[in-house]
Design brief:
Blueprint lengths: L3 H10 L5 H7 L5 H9 L16 E6 L5 H5 L8 H5 L3 E3 L4 H6 L3 E4 L5 E6 L3 E3 L2 E10 L2 E6 L11 H7 L16
Parallel strand pairs: 1-7
Antiparallel strand pairs: 1-2, 3-4, 4-5, 5-6, 6-7
Length: about 180
């Protein structure tokens, strides 16, 4: 067992694991997002391949995203991979490169644009990058503090279905002053 510890540590430091494996094993990634990726694992094999010359950057929601929000991904209509592809940028973008992109847009894998801004740190759309530059053999992972959505990705029906309503009980006394 002690002989394997340096090997495990060494492989992570040398970015030997592919993006998908890193995300699925990282305890800082939201569990519902990990589940959404697991459901689409066959469609995501391209980000789990270290033998290609293509690198990717993936923005993934962290544990600070409420599970109810991340669970929304699993209840959306259509193919889940269509939503997940908005979290992937074809190319390797480091934290420093994201800072330099302040005010610019990048094209995500689904063909939609995402805006990079710098406030107290780099943001993608309205989500702040909270953990940066997790290296993988085929790119970089950044953990963000919220979900990101392609423009028009969620229709009105999906928004209505995502809202949870609480039952309100009104007082029975008709002499309530307003």
């Amino acid at each position: 067992m002690l002989v394997m510890l340096p090997i495990i540590g060494f492989s992570q430091l040398d970015c030997e694991n592919p993006i998908l494996d890193e995300i699925l094993q990282n305890p800082e990634v939201n569990q519902y997002f990990q589940l959404a990726l697991s459901v689409n694992i066959s469609e995501l094999e391209f980000i789990n391949n270290c033998d290609q010359d293509i690198n990717y950057t993936m923005f993934v929601p962290g544990n600070n995203v409420p599970n109810e929000s991340a669970a929304l991904l699993l209840g959306l209509t259509g193919e889940l991979i269509d939503y997940i592809s908005y979290y992937i940028y074809m190319g390797d973008l480091s934290y420093a490169e994201l800072i330099a992109l302040n005010g610019n847009s990048i094209e995500m894998m689904d063909g939609n644009q995402a805006v990079i801004n710098y406030y107290s740190g780099p943001f993608i759309n309205d989500s702040m990058i909270t953990i940066e530059d997790i290296c993988a053999c085929n790119g970089t992972i950044h953990i963000i503090d919220d979900l990101i959505w392609a423009p028009g990705a969620i229709g009105l029906n999906e928004r209505v279905n995502a809202v949870s309503y609480t039952h309100l009980t009104l007082p029975t006394n008709r002499d309530v002053m307003i």
